[in-house]
Amino acid sequence: MNSLAVVLGLLSAANFALGASLEQHAAKQERQTRTLDPRLILRLLRRPLWLFGWVPDAAGTVLQAVALNLGALALVEPLLLSGVFMAIPVEAALERRRPHPRDAVVVAFGVVGLAAFLAAADPRPGIAEPVFADWLRVGAAVAVLVAVCLVLAWRVHDAARGVLLGVATGAMYGIAAALLKSVTAILSEHPVQVFVHWEGYALVLLGGAALTLNQNAFQGGPIAAPLTAIALLDPLVGVAVGVTAFHESLSTAPARIAVQVLGVLAMSVCIWLASTTRSR
Length: 280
Hints:
This protein has helices at residues 3-27, 39-44, 48-52, 54-70, 73-79, 82-94, 101-121, 132-153, 158-189, 198-218, 224-244, 254-275. It is mostly helical.
C-alpha cells in the first residue's frame, strides 16, 4: 500500500470536505430548482461563499490527481469518505450550532464500513489505461444507475431527494475519478497527446454535469444526507471501475471477502440512515 498516496488522498478529502460545506451553505440559500437546471449554477456564481468553495475543491482535485498517479484507484477513492466526517463540524460552524449526534453516528458508521472494506480488499494496481470497450461497459452501468436515481428523485423531497441525487452524483464522480487517473497517466508520459484523447473531454463534460447535480443535492436538508451518499458511491464506483476497467486486484481469501461484504452492508445501512435524516 503506497503511504504517500494514502496521505495525499486524506489531504484531498479534507479539502473536498471544506469545499462541499461552503458550497452547500450557499446552495441552501437558493430556492430549489429542477434537477440539472443550469440556472442554479448561474445564480450561485453571484455568491462569493460558493465561489470561495472552489479554492479547496481545486486543491483537492490536484491532490487527488497526484494520489491517483501514485496509487490504485481502488485505494485512493475510498479514502475520500473521510471527508464526510470532516464536513459535519464545518457545516455546524457555518450554521453556528453544534453537530447533530445522529449525523455523526451515520458518517462514523460509513467510515467504519468502508475502512473495513479497504483493509480486507487490499487493493493492488493494474494497468495505466483501460481499453475503450471496458470504458463503454462501466459507463453504461453508471448511466443506468444515474437515470434510476433521477427518476426517483422527482418523487421525493428533503433528505430522501438529497440522498438519491447524492447517489447519482457519487457515481458520476467515481467515473470522473477514473477518467482523471487516465488523463493524469497520459499527462505524465505524453503531455501534448492529452488533447487528442477523448478522456479529457469526457472528464470536462461529466464534471460539469456532476457539479450541477451536486448543487441540487445540497439544496435540501442537512449536509450529512447527500454528502454521505456522494462519499460512499464515489469510492464504490471507483473500486468497481478499478477492478473491471483498470484490472486492479482485490484480495479473494474467503475471510477477507466476508469482511468486504460486511463493509458494503454497513455502508448500505449508512445510506439508508442518511435518507431518513430530517431537515432541522
